[in-house]
Each structure stands twice: as C-alpha cells, then as structure tokens.
Amino acid sequence: AILSLDPFLDADSEVNETDFYQAVFDAFTSQGQTWGLPGQVNITLIEYNKALFDEAGLDYPAVDWTTDDFLNYAVALTQGEGETRQYGYVSDLFEPSDMLNMMDRLGAKLIDDGQDPPALALTDPATIAAVRWYTGLTTEHDVKPVLMTSLTDMAVTAVQERESALAQGRAAMWSNSAFNVDLGGGDDADFDTGAVPLPAGTGETRGSGYQSATGYFISADTEVRDACWQWIKFLTEQPSMGSGLPARQALAESDAFSEQVGPELAEAYLASMANATDAPYSQQVADENSWLNLPVIWLYGAYSQIVKDGLSVEEALENA
C-alpha cells in the first residue's frame, strides 16, 4: 500500500501540482487523491540522418511538422532495392506498438467512454483513419521495412535488419524511445543525427506528446514519512535522475536540462509536450480501465492482417 501525498502537498508550499505538466500529474491521481510525484516523462522521438537529408537537398524536419510532412520526407528519401535499399523510415522493432504511438499522436479515439463499461473504439472513424495512414507506409508507399508485425515473428531477424539499416546509414528517419536516444548516430556511425517530435495530425487535435511517465511513491509501512517526502521531492528537482524529460515544467525548460542533453534534443522534448492535447492510450486505461490494456492485442492482430494478409483496414478492425 502507498500513502496519499495530499497531506504533504497541503503542508509544503515548495511543491504544487502546477509545477508539473498537468496531464502527467493527473496520471498520479485517482479517486480525488494524489498518490505519487511525477519524475520523468518518457517521450518517443523521430531521429533522422542529416547526411541523407543534405544529399537529397531537403530541409531538416521542423519540430511542428505534421504527418503530411513526414510522409513527403519518407517517400522522397526511399530509394534502391534489396540489401542496399534506403528506407525513408524505420519503425521501432515491434511495428504495432510503433503504430500505437503514432495513433496517439494523430489523436485517434481508442476508447469509447460514453458507455459503461468503456470499450475499445476500434471502428471509430478517427481510429480507422490513423490505422490507414500508418499501415499505408508499408502497403501503399513502401517506405519502411517490415520488421515484427506480431508477437510470434522472429525477433532475431528483425533486430538484425533494423540495426543494419541504421548502422549502414540506410535509414533516413527512425523511431527511438527516450531510453535510447543518442544524437550523433552512436559510437560507430559516421553521420550526424537530429531529433524531432513524432509528427502531429493535420487537424486541430494534436494527440499525446508522450508515451508514459515514471514517478515516486511513499510506502504506507514506512516509519519515516517526512524523510521520504523530502527525498522524493528532492528527486523531482534533479535534471539528471532518469531518461526523458523532467516532469517539473520549469526544470524541463531550464538551462541545466538543455546543457545536459543538448539544445536540439531538449527542444524536441519540449515541443512534444507543447503540442499535446490528450493523454496517451496507456494513461487513458490507467486505474479502473486497466483491463483495456489486454484487448489492445486485438489491434496488434489487425495490423498484421492488414500488412501481411492483405485485409482492408475496415475489415481487420471489424475483426478485432
């Protein structure tokens, strides 16, 4: 069991929920009480090979780019065949999870909370449109390799294909989580990389700007509650406690954080949060709706049916 932090927040004028990104702070509240302090926001970014953009005479992606911009870049930067093929985009290893991140960013409505109990909204028009856009990267535009489309695919082969494309400079853009971002292309790469947020939808809804958040809690069994509070408060004030963006907004925007990760990466993180209008799917199914994490596997199955079996988006989502 964990303690409610509301008594500490009420008594400590140095900490206020407005210090944190509101959508992130909300993830640590339930039934009208605060149960944890957010520490870091985990954000997936798009990294890109600057040399390939230079060779193609293309401007680097802007932090406020859209899915239309992304697709134009991906098509322009895909060329060649076989083992030397250059891809405009290389997804995360497990493609359906990568699609889910993009769907969040596109503002897809995955949950219908207008009914009791809530249900997955897999045939909602916004969901259909987002799935059509992402699967079209493979089925229509052929700008990305096919890696793992289901949990039963051979992971070793997919890992080798993805890593070779990145290491050999055959990937113009690729998805990378906050835990793996390495501007500079890695130790063995001979090219520079940049980073921008996931592209946003072209409508008014910008979707979520992050994927998850980590935080700190106090056990209900501790005999040193005040000391624990001082400790977790201190941890949220440090710019280098973990990967990703600090959950304290002022700290995220500070010179200290920018110097730590570099100005380009800091700008990409901040732009991700600035453009967000909704919480990610993982946060929407927190607490009482956590059972909806399991049926999302049906969405993953629909992805494989579309990409590998040739089913239409509508038919695959209807099956799901």
Task: Describe the structure in your own words.
The protein is globular, with a radius of gyration of 21 Å. The longest helix is centred in the middle third of the chain and has 15 residues. The chain has 14 helices and 10 strands. The two termini are 36 Å apart. It is an alpha+beta fold. Strands 9-3-10 form a 3-stranded antiparallel sheet.
List keywords for this structure.
globular; 10 strands; alpha+beta; 14 helices
Lay out the secondary structure.
Blueprint: H1 6-11, H2 22-26, E1 29-30, E2 33-34, E3 37-42, E4 45-49, H3 50-56, H4 67-76, H5 95-106, E5 111-112, E6 119-120, H6 125-139, H7 155-167, E7 173-176, E8 193-197, E9 212-216, H8 225-235, E10 245-246, H9 249-252, H10 255-261, H11 263-274, H12 281-284, H13 296-309, H14 313-319
Antiparallel strand pairs: 1-2, 3-9, 3-10, 4-7, 4-8, 5-6
Helix pairs in contact: 5-6, 10-11, 13-14
